[in-house]
Description:
225 residues, alpha/beta, Rossmann fold, three-stranded antiparallel sheet, 16% strand
Amino acid sequence: MFAIAIDGPAGAGKSSVAKAAAKALGFTYVDTGALYRTIALYMLETGVDLEDPAAVIAALPGVEVSLEYGPQGQRTLLGGRDVSGEIRTQEVSIATSRWVSHIPEVRAFLVDLQRGLAERADVIMDGRDIGTVILPKAQLKVFLTASPEERARRRTAQLEEAGEPAEFQQVLAEVVQRDRQDEPQLRLTAPDTVTLDTTGLDFSQVVEALVTLARERMGRDEKEG
């Protein structure tokens, strides 16, 4: 099995680029961020105090999260209910980035699920710790990034398309704050990671660059194998 691990700051386009590249390569796209978002949604729905890590950890056994794949791609389920749309709201995004994703026990809770997916198919997986903890032996590791302003512009457009009002300056401030929160983790990239800066590139150019990297690496591995 061939695995591609994609990491990078919030709003760098990891999910959309990974999804398109997976389609071009015939891989399964795994949106690991959806798993963290689903846990955040569960905590919000059940009234768990997100500012209390101990309370979040105590509630984890009640979370039944799973992923399904079909013609339309990945579906995220919470207790058998499709929450693929619900986990994309601003409220869930904030809960995930400020509290849930920073709790080590939450990350450990999801490790086996993520690794199991990579054992069954060729995958592109995006999210934090993918290349260092989840799939340290991934054949290709990419750090996808862009300037804060570029990422804020993309996020603002995404929210507006989803029908949520968004102010660019507020979104930019949230991006900058998220960068500060994530800085320690973002520095922990694997030494064999390839950096791909998408600032100034359109979507198709970024996808093409990632697909080219993957095909080159697959070709090299076949020769070495």
